[in-house]
Amino acid sequence: MNWLSISVRQQRATSTHAKGSESRIPLKRPSPHHCRYPGIRPSLKRGHMTTSPLIPPSTIKHPRQSSNNPSTTMATASTTETPNLVRVNHHDAKTFAAALLTASGVSAKNAEITASGLVQADLRGVESHGILRLPSYLSRVRSGVLDPAAEPELKQITPVVAQIDARNGFGFPAAHLGMDTAIKMAGVYGIGMVSVKHSNHFGMSAWIVKQAVDADMMSLVFTNSSPALPVWGSKEKMMGVSPIACGAPGGKGEGSKPFILDMAPSVAARGKIYKALRRGEKIPTDWALDGEGKQTDDPAKALEGVMLPMGGPKGSALAIMMDVFSGVLSGSAFAGGVTGPYDMSKPGDVGHFFVAIKPDLFMSLDEFRERMDILYQKAVNSEKMHGVDRIYFPGEIEQLNEEQRLKDGIPYAKAEIDALNAEAEKLGLGKIRLIE
């Protein structure tokens, strides 16, 4: 069965459900407060993940095989037991991450920015883009394909347009400078746009969106990534599973949350497959195809094949859009040219594109916030579908995770902590501090 026919089958399943069937696609979105493991939200995030796991796929055993059950292909819960978890205070996680980075040649300022972006991902429940990325980042540093000491260079093009050359440094400082520059231009002229070239992975897009939201700005955050997704009708990996992210300040009403969208153009984010691989878990069979173009619940085989775009040609077109704005426009790699996480032959050459917009251009900020509050209240209090306990605004689940983890600590699998401590040992540093 090819991926075109799979997409058609999924569309038919959706149509059938709309007519009254409830057996094919489970619609219930479990509450983040009713998970099997406290502090860990269900697999509800629509966010992006694009690159490397802690350990190269070739060194990890495939999960145990079982027969596929078509009636459960849309489920996100794993059929295997989650490993033992330990918890880390967010301050300790950030201190540990910054220490690894500075010991690897990153300046104190850039290490602080990078560590902050990584820990924000962990707090929001996007662990695949948190400090677990550090072993793969530092492997690239040791291989000479990522320059830890590089400082991004800013060039002003017009009063509202700028470009940054990341000079093959960490993507986090370049992204932070890019959005900060866009915010400053928007503060004066209403809008600011920044293109970034010759960069690397900048982690979870939502932390950059939050940077703008905290400055009372609307934003667009685009990036491209290494090939993982075929264009519609092809079986060749060409487009990246590149995140589409944007945001706006929220209302002032009780319970209102900012609008923060951060999603991949694929059925599932690639980082979820890497996470399942690390933890020995299976994946739903509609996420990806193996190297032979067949459905698989084995994450290792999925990584040898292709991710499936959400909505068929729609997801494919969104992935191409990200490549146009981030790769073609910036002068970075594009059309499958971004280097993958385990290709140590050359730099990543990732491109980004940031836009900040002042929301009080057409009305006062207070009126804008009042209207956002109305939108939020109408959205989350709208009539629920059968089986849905609660309706969430984009980014709200992640914010609830953050509030909980700021109090209880960030959960990690013990094997993941071991990998981080192994990096610390290489650099002559102490182990990460755990919550007893």
From TrEMBL:
Keywords: Oxidoreductase
GO MF annotations in UniProt: oxidoreductase activity
Natural source organism: Neurospora crassa (strain ATCC 24698 / 74-OR23-1A / CBS 708.71 / DSM 1257 / FGSC 987)
Disordered, as annotated region: 1-77
Descriptive protein name: Malate/L-lactate dehydrogenase
Comp. bias intervals (Low complexity): 66-77
Database matches in SUPFAM superfamilies: L-sulfolactate dehydrogenase-like
Pfam families reported for this sequence: Ldh_2 (PF02615)
Family membership noted in the UniProt record: Belongs to the LDH2/MDH2 oxidoreductase family.
Domain of life of the source: Eukaryota
